[in-house]
Amino acid sequence: MITQSSNLVPNNNRLTFKSRLNPIKPFIQNTKTGELKISEINYDTDITPEFIDKITDFFCENFSKYTTDNFWLRYRKGSAEQKKQHTQIFNKYYTNIFKNEENNQDLTMLIAKDKDGKMQGACLSYGCDEIPASKSNVLYIDSVATNDEYKNCGVAKVMMEKTLNVNKKRFTDVFLTSANMANKFYEKLGFKQFNAADNEQKTILDYIAKHRRDYPEHIMPYSKPLQEDKPRWFTNSAKAIKELPDNY
User: In this predicted model, what pLDDT tens digit does every residue of 161-197 receive, in sequence order?
Assistant: First the structure.
């Protein structure tokens, strides 16, 4: 049973933790390619290094197929050594996410598996740590992808909808950065690009430009309210950014 506390306990090189979110019940998604079982990762069992290896390989393979970013093109077309270097970077990245106790409190990860138990889709989210003053009220969609044979089958859409629904009482807004080739997918889900004509949103865009090498050429920031009756998150984050030291 998922509890209201978060516990991270090293155990023979394994990581265990419990989410404070309400769990998403496993469900079946019927597609033209075949039936998928979609469920949250089990927070009461160990997150093994082998599991993180699979997540890393899955996301890296899919990200490299749908971007114009040379970083990912080198992964897709490069040598085995280049691919290994990319994988090591992202393996460390995902390991840090699972080790981060603050993230674990709000982390939701859905996995879609086919009848043979092969991972065909995944969606990872947690409290936003990309932008100042956003972690407590903004959900960050870190990674979402499906394998080629399940593209355009509604799998990514249903994983996103389930994730947003379970988080809408916890967070007022949701934020993500989309590979430009995927912009239409998020727009169909109601996400809006940041408006550079709005001073607060422009402040956040300038912060992103300063801290990410892939914006604006390869990615586009998007946001969407989860609680329509609450003020948007842009004001607090823009204020926090302006209060940062000039060299931050």
Answer: 999 999 999 999 999 999 999 999 999 999 999 999 9
Instruction: Give the type of residue at 196.
Output: A
Domain limits, the chain: 9-242
122 residue type, one letter: A
Report residue 149 as tokens. 């044979």
Which DSSP state fits 182?
G
For 6, residues 6+ apart whose C-beta sits below 8 A from its C-beta are 17, 18, 19, 20, 101, 104, 105
Angle at 8 between CA 1 and CA 145, to 5 degrees: 75
- Residue 43 CA: distances (Å) to CA of 18, 22, 104, 201, 228: 5, 12, 10, 35, 30
Is it the case that residue 211 has pLDDT exceeding 80? yes
Tell me the CATH number for domain 9-242: 3.40.630.30
Q: Which sign does the torsion angle of CA 147, 185, 212, 106 carry?
A: negative
Q: How many CB atoms lie within 10 A of CB 220?
A: 21
Percent of the chain with pLDDT over 90: 69
What 3-state class would DSSP assign to 139?
strand
Cis bond upstream, residue 216 (ω within 30) = yes
pTM over 0.85: yes
DSSP 59-86: HHHHHTTS---HHHHHHHHS-HHHHHHH
Residue 14 clears pLDDT 80, i.e. is over it: no
Stretch (H or E) spanning 126: strand 119-127
